[in-house]
Amino acid sequence: MGISIADLFAALGADFHAPMEGVPTATVIVRMLMACCLGGVIGIEREIHARTAGLRTHILVSLASCLFTLIAWELIATELPEGVRHNTDPLRLIEAVTAGVAFLAAGSIITSRGRVQGLTTGAGMWMAGAIGLACGTGRLTLAILATLIAVSVLFLLRRISHSIGPKGDR
Question: pLDDT tens for residues 51-61?
Answer without folding.
Answer: 777 899 999 99
